[in-house]
Structure formats: C-alpha cells, structure tokens
Amino acid sequence: MENKKFKVFMVVLSVLVAGAISMSAVTGQWYIGAIVLLIAVFKIYQVKMRLKTKVVIEDEMIEKISGKAARITYLIFGLAGALLVLVFFALGQNNPVFYIVGNTLAFAVCAVVAVYVIAYVYLTKDFRGDGDEE
Amino acid sequence: MKNKIKVYRAMYDLTQQQLAQKLGVTRQTVVALEKNKYNPSLELAFKIARLFNVSIEDVFTYEQPNGN
C-alpha cells in the first residue's frame, strides 16, 4: 500500500512541478519554478527517507529498468536532437529564429552527451586497470 | 534461466509480499522472478537460496539460449 501511495505522491508532485515550471516560463518569473523544484526535491528526499524503514521502494530490478530507460532516453534525445539541429540550421538560413533554436538545442545535446560521458567514466573507474596479462 | 521460487515459496507458506520483505526487494521483483521474466543478481540469488536453506542450483537452473 505504501508503494502505491508513493507512486501517487510522485505523479502529483510531477504534475505540480511541471505546472510551476510552465507558469514560470509563461510569466517570465523564473524563481517560481526554481523554488517549487527545490521544494519537490526536498520533499521526495524526506518521503523516501521516511519510507525506507517501512518498505522497499527501489531494488535491483527497478534500478536496472531505470538504467535501461535512461539509456534509451539518452539515445533518442541525442540522435533526434542532432538531426533536429541540422534541420534548424538549414531553416535558419531563411529565418534567424530557427538558427537560435538550433544553436540552443545543439548546446543542450552536447551538454547531455558530456554529462553521460562524465557519469560513464566515473561509474566505470573501478573496472579499469592495466590487467596482469603480458 | 529458470527457477523454482514459486515452489519453495509455497513450501514455506509465504506470500509474495512476505518473501519480498524478507529479501528486501519489491513485490514486483518477486512476481517477475516467479514468471522467469527477470534474472536476479548473484547477491539476490544467494539470498533466495539461503532463505530456503538450499543451494543456488536447487533454486535456479541455467539453460543455454540454444536449448543445450
């Protein structure tokens, strides 16, 4: 039952954060989204810590599935983003707005790839070595 | 990989939720294990075998993809 409550809590919180960020984007008041996001992160941490002693929320299977989902998301975002950047750059020759959007997207894709590489190198640091073979 | 978790769980008269709690995993993981949809880590496999007081080979059977 606690697991179901946690899932509902996460869905409600996601909707609230998405709403707050959308509102801050529309109104131009960035701090609303930032504050709500920080409160949401703190709340998730608090609830997870409280539930940790009662029930198992995450285990190895969920971690494995999350890893796969993250990898698929990274691949889709990376490939689709790179293709869209090319399209926006092509359209940007006639309209500079597309060029700006393409530029922003290019930086976003590069940032995601950079974070992925850093995370990958960090997570595989214990598995590297010269080996003992000649 | 196939397993007899469902059989051992019945022998020990445990519900999926109770088994999940004893193993420190979610009930979904127990369901996936019993349906042979998920291969557990070596650590979890040892936990399962120890819980039922049997060896890993008694619970899990490795089958090569080509059926040999």
Question: Would you write up a description of this structure?
Answer:
The complex is a heterodimer of chains A (134) and B (68). By secondary structure, chain A is mainly alpha-helical. Chain A is 81% helix and 0% strand. Chain A has helices at residues 2-27, 30-52, 60-91, 96-123. Chain A starts with a helix and ends in an 11-residue tail after the last helix. Helix content of chain B is 54%, strand content 6%. Chain B contains five helices and two strands. Chain B has a two-stranded antiparallel ribbon. The chains are: A mainly alpha (134), B mainly alpha (68).
For this entry, give a set of tags:
heterodimer; A: 134 residues; mainly alpha; 4 helices; B: 68 residues; two-stranded antiparallel ribbon; 54% helix
- Major β-sheet annotation of chain A: none
Helix proportion of residues of chain A, in percent?
A: over 70%
**Global outline of chain A:** flat
Question: Shape of chain B from CA axes?
Answer: globular
Relative strand content of chain A: under 5%
Helix tally of chain A equals 4
Euclidean distance between termini CA atoms of chain A: 56 Å
> SSE string of chain A, helix = H, strand = E?
HHHH
Main sheet overview of chain B:
2 strands, antiparallel
The overall pLDDT average of chain B reads 92
Proportion of residues in extended strands of chain B: 5-15%
Poorly predicted runs of chain A: none
Alpha-beta classification of chain A: mainly alpha
Oligomer: heterodimer
